[in-house]
Amino acid sequence: MSYYDIDAILTDAEKIPCTFQLDIPDLGYLDNTPSQPLKAGTKVNLPLWLAEMLVIANTGAADNKTFVTFDLPRALGNDVVQALKADPRAVPLRDQSAHFYGLATHMLDLSEEQELGSVLRKTFVTRAAEISLHARKVGSIGHKAKSKGEGASEMGSNLGLGGAGEEFLRGLDEWERSLFRKAHEGAKAGKDWIESVKKN
Amino acid sequence: MALSLPPGLTHAEVSFLAEMETVTIVPRQRLDSIDLLSGKTPSLRPPHRVDLSLWLALLLKKQRRANIVPPPWLHPASLSEIVQRETKENPTAFSEPPPVPSRPNIHQPGIAARQNNNETVQLSPPFQASCTADAPAGYLPYHWMEVAEMLLTFAGDDMISLGSAGEIRGLLRDLTEVRAAKMRDSTKTLGADGENVGGVVSLRGVGAMELAENRGFILGVVDGMRRIGASVEATRREQEEEMGGPGGGGGGGGRGDDGDDDSDEDMGI
Amino acid sequence: MDIDDILREVDPTFHSIPKEKQDLQELTRAWIAERSAPELLPWPPNGLFERINDNIKSQIEKVEEMTGDMDPRTNFALIVIQTELERYKYLVRSYLRARIAKIDKHTLHYLSTDNLRSRLSEMELAYATRHQALLHNHYLSSFLSSFPPQLQNLNDAAGINMVETPDLDAAVFIRLLKDVFVEGRGVDSDVTMDGRESDIVILRWSDAKPLVEAGQAELV
């Protein structure tokens, strides 16, 4: 993890549903009851960086209780996982979180969710293959658009791919967008190189 | 000024590299040997063939001082044989790279593996002379795409002896397409089953341009899989440690590695 | 052609590669490696870079001498020499710039231990040290000095280390130069592949590094 990585910082701000295991004095304002202690059992959405610390931190209590327990955020909840199992390509991950995989890898570190891990890996690879196909298509369409004087197409917007493709690309999370960019740039650089040889 | 490019050679850099391949020419004019940084060029005496770098051959060609002898693998018969192999005989792998030229101590294979002093630098593409007139047919050299493109563009008339430019370009296009599909599939095998992701993927026979085009994407997928699998991997390593060393326990299908544990750097988060 | 050259070419037992070609192979290999590896690699040993740089300098002098000569035949030789010279300069420049980019990106990391510092050439070390000092002074005068003293550090290692480091487990492509076993760590299993010369393999840089350092593989 690198200190100045914006995506990592934004991922750390994602909210995680947590349940406090102890009464905590003076923290009531987290639950809209200022000047009161926060009661054990209260559910509060905490940013990932804080939740992580509280899950790991030692309370010093004899029964090894942690400050909070957490549930998987809705982005990684059962509905999403079931949908991903059915067809990874049909789920717009971005609607769940722009930092879907970043969030997911944090959660996998905190919990031993074996099944979630393998669903995510299958999801990533399957969608990557789809991304690579689209990245090539966009290259050629972008070319035509340019020659018609319509300007280069920007990803995720006027791709002219037809509904399904555009919908899929709109649903890419940040990791996937970066993959798309790499695949697209590779394909484009290949075409540009052929052109440059001919011009010489 | 610093060069802030993503890792790996760009297309232009690969093309620059390919210009260092050796090709065979037939001089049309005499030219004395020239003292270059890479050594003396052979003196040119028509019609004696000589081998020299592609960039120099192209320079001579543009000045009508020489004709370039097509490399045997660019012959339509050779290309269609490779297309056939890539589509029918082995639809999942790239065809074999050219055989490595013999080396000094080839007669003593036992010593060959040991010998790694600075006296002999081991040559690799583009310095292996896989595009000369006596290179073998039926094998695509590492820089096949760039060399073919440059030869057809700048020395098209010299390539005519092989067959029509249209025919050669058609075959090259077929080859590009069938291999691009293999390239795409290579990432699918990285764990499409979501189950077994090992540490080594081989792309034997792949070409330099093909790598340049797909590098960012493929490495992105490999690195992504590693990051998603990091916690699983860390758990597996802990378990193997407890079971008395790697490979001892439920390590899955792979053969355990026998590297010493102490030097194992922590995978971390 | 010299009679010795002819004899050398027909003699099958005499395979020695001319020094100039060896140097070009090694410089090219070093360049590709530097452009592909996630971390800064050691400065080339055995004076390779210095030797090539000296050769370039004397070639430039030769070009200057030849420029006065207007004989059209040597003129073509001049074009060839200059073309090659430009190619060498491109290689050298691109190699140095790729290294500088890595040094700039992780300056504090490469200056942090003697072992890491030893990868830099003398010039690079001087550059990195001065550049870092300039940057630090600039940060201090423009904003750092208004921070509370305990927040002024740029190399705090508590929590997430502020000194960023290259990802040594990033994947790379290598070509095997020998028949050799390739060990690669993976998510679900660690694999040992019975590698053949000319294989092109994807694996983590941390696993590829020993092979590259032993001359058994090169980055591509």
From TrEMBL, chain A:
Primary role: The GINS complex plays an essential role in the initiation of DNA replication.
The entry's keywords: DNA replication, Nucleus
InterPro entries: GINS_A (IPR021151), GINS_bundle-like_dom_sf (IPR036224), GINS_Psf3 (IPR010492), GINS_Psf3_sf (IPR038437), PSF3_N (IPR055221)
Residue span(s) of domain GINS subunit: 78-194
GO cellular component: GINS complex
Main localization (coarse): nucleus
Keyword Thylakoid assigned: no
Subunit architecture: Component of the GINS complex.
Official protein name in the record: DNA replication complex GINS protein PSF3
Family in the record: Belongs to the GINS3/PSF3 family.
Pfam family membership, one: PSF3_N
Regions crossing the membrane: none
Compartments where located: Nucleus
Domain of life (superkingdom): Eukaryota
Boundaries of every DNA replication complex GINS protein PSF3 N-terminal domain copy: 4-56
Biological process per Gene Ontology, one example term: mitotic DNA replication initiation
UniProtKB/TrEMBL annotation, chain B:
Keyword Nucleus: yes
Keyword Lipid metabolism: no
Domain GINS subunit positions: 123-228
Pfam short name (any one): PSF2_N
Acidic residues bias spans: 258-269
Main location: nucleus
Subcellular location per the Swiss-Prot or TrEMBL entry: Nucleus
Keywords of the record: Chromosome partition, DNA replication, Nucleus
Top-rank taxon: Eukaryota
InterPro entries: GINS_A, GINS_bundle-like_dom_sf, GINS_Psf2, PSF2_N
CDD domains (UniProt xref): GINS_A_psf2 (cd11712), GINS_B_Psf2 (cd21694)
Biased composition (Gly residues): 244-254
Subunit architecture: Component of the GINS complex.
Main function: The GINS complex plays an essential role in the initiation of DNA replication. Has a role in chromosome segregation.
Family as reported in the entry's similarity comment: Belongs to the GINS2/PSF2 family.
PANTHER family (UniProt xref): DNA REPLICATION COMPLEX GINS PROTEIN PSF2
Identification of the protein by name: DNA replication complex GINS protein PSF2
Automatic annotation (TrEMBL), chain C:
Top-level division of the source organism's lineage: Eukaryota
GO CC, alphabetical: GINS complex
Pfam families referenced in this protein's UniProt entry, alphabetically: Sld5 (PF05916), SLD5_C (PF16922)
Protein's cellular compartments: Nucleus
Keyword Protease in record: no
GO biological process: chromosome segregation; DNA-templated DNA replication; double-strand break repair via break-induced replication
Iron-sulfur is among the record's keywords: no
Major localization class: nucleus
Entry-linked InterPro entries: GINS_A, GINS_bundle-like_dom_sf, GINS_Sld5, SLD5_C, Sld5_GINS_A
Domain DNA replication complex GINS protein SLD5 C-terminal: 166-220
Ranges for domain GINS subunit: 62-141
Keywords on record: Chromosome partition, DNA replication, Nucleus
Functional summary from the UniProt entry: The GINS complex plays an essential role in the initiation of DNA replication. Has a role in chromosome segregation.
Complexes and interactors: Component of the GINS complex which is a heterotetramer of SLD5, PSF1, PSF2 and PSF3.
Family per record: Belongs to the GINS4/SLD5 family.
Protein name per UniProt: DNA replication complex GINS protein SLD5
Organism of derivation: Podospora fimiseda
Lineage: Eukaryota, Fungi, Dikarya, Ascomycota, Pezizomycotina
